[in-house]
Amino acid sequence: MPEAKPSKQSYRLRRLRRVELPLDTIELARYLIGKTLVHDLPDTRLSGRIVETEAYPAGDPVGHAFRGPTPANRSLFLKHGHAYVRFTYGSCWLMNISSETPGVGAGVLIRALEPLEGAERMQLHRGVSRVVDLARGPGRLAAAMAIDRCFDGLDLFSRASRLWIGSPVRRAGPVGVSIRIGISRAVRRKLRFYERGNPFVSGPLRLRA
DNA sequence: AGTGCGATTGACT
DNA sequence: GTCAATCGCACTA
C-alpha cells in the first residue's frame, strides 16, 4: 500500500529568493505551482510541492484585505513574501503569502500540497493515513505542515526562516485555471491555479482535470 | 462522486 | 449577533 508507507526520499531544495517572485498577485499564484513549501522542524523537515493556489488581488471584495488593515489581516499589507495565517470555521488555519508592495493588501492562498518529505509526521498531525488526504485543502495543508498563528507575519524570505519556499523538484505539468473554491458571492473570477490531473489537488473532479 | 449539514473560534458590526 | 477563503461524515447512487 503506497498510502500506508509514504516515501522517505529526501530532496535537494534551494531557498528561493524574494527577487525571483513576480511582484503581482495573480502572476505569483501561477508562479507558485510546482514550487515547494518547506517547514524545518527541530528534528524533521516537512515539505511538499505546491499544486493548488488562489489569488486574492488588491481590491477583491472577497479578499480579507478589502476593508482595509486590521490587527488580524495586517500581514496581507506587508511586502510580498510574508505569511498571512488566519483561523477560520472554528478549526482551520489557512496559509497565504502576501503578494504586493507594502501597504497594498493582497495575497495568495496555498490550497494543496503533494507531500515530499516528512509525510509520516504529517500523518500524525492530521490523524489520517492516506497520503492524498494529508494536504488536499487549505485547512488540511496547515494542519499537516504544523502552521498556525505563530507564523502570521513571518517573512518567508528572511535568511533563516523555518518556513520557506523552495525550488521545484520537477517541472510542473500543465496549469489549469478555474473559479475559486468556496466563494459564493457574485465574484466568479478565474483566480484559482492548479496542476492539471494531479491527485493532490482539492475540489470536485471537474476542477482538477 | 456528489450533496447536505453541523461543528466551532475569532473578528468585526 | 453574524459571518466566515473549511472539514469530515453521513447520506444517496
In short:
The protein has helices at 25-31, 119-126, 138-144, and strands at 36-40, 45-56, 83-88, 92-98, 107-117, 163-166, 175-178, 192-195. The longest helix is centred in the middle third of the chain and has 8 residues, at 119-126.
Structure description:
The chain has 209 residues and is α+β, with helices and mostly antiparallel strands. Helix content is 11%, strand content 25%. It contains 3 helices and 8 strands, in the order αβββββααβββ. Strands 1, 2, 3, 4, 5, 6, 7 and 8 form an 8-stranded antiparallel sheet that branches. A hairpin with a 4-residue loop joins strand 1 (36-40) and strand 2. It starts with 24 loop residues before the first helix and ends in a 14-residue tail after the last strand. The structure holds a DNA duplex (13 and 13 nucleotides).
Shape: globular
| Count of runs of 4 or more consecutive helical residues | 3
Poorly predicted tracts of residues: none
* Sheet with the most strands, sense and barrel status: 8 strands, antiparallel
Mind sketching the topology for me?
Blueprint: H1 25-31, E1 36-40, E2 45-56, E3 83-88, E4 92-98, E5 107-117, H2 119-126, H3 138-144, E6 163-166, E7 175-178, E8 192-195
Antiparallel strand pairs: 1-2, 1-6, 2-5, 2-8, 3-4, 4-5, 7-8
This protein binds a DNA duplex (13 and 13 nucleotides) through strand 3, strand 4 and helix 3.
Search tags:
209 residues, alpha+beta, 8 strands, 11% helix, 25% strand, DNA-binding
